[in-house]
Write a structure and sequence with these properties.
Helix 1 (9-16) packs across helix 2. The protein has a three-stranded antiparallel β-sheet with strand order 1-3-2. By secondary structure, it is α+β, with helices and mostly antiparallel strands. The chain has helices spanning 9-16, 20-28, 45-69; strands at residues 6-7, 35-37, 40-44. The protein has three helices and three strands, in the order E-H-H-E-E-H. The termini are far apart.
Length: 75
């Protein structure tokens, strides 16, 4: 898949090896950017990659901060 063209929800699910329901959850929670055309969604793979990296980085930062605040806590 080229990163500059818009792809379908099926392409995103296949690329990340997740279900379409997971991709729809990402849409509902504004985790990933998308373009809505009527009732369909389109995505730029490069933008989705960047958004998911940001989410992962934020999760790691939050976990480290929680551990620093409470070193005996399980993460």
């Amino acid at each position: 898949m080229t990163e500059n063209k818009y792809v379908t929800i099926n392409d995103i699910a296949e690329h990340y090896t997740v279900s379409i329901s997971t991709v729809r959850a990402w849409i509902r929670t504004n985790t990933i950017p998308y373009l809505q055309v009527g009732k369909t969604f389109r995505f730029k793979l490069s933008e989705v990659d960047a958004a998911l990296r940001d989410v992962r980085t934020k999760k790691i930062d939050d976990d480290v901060e929680a551990l620093v605040d409470n070193p005996d806590q399980d993460i």
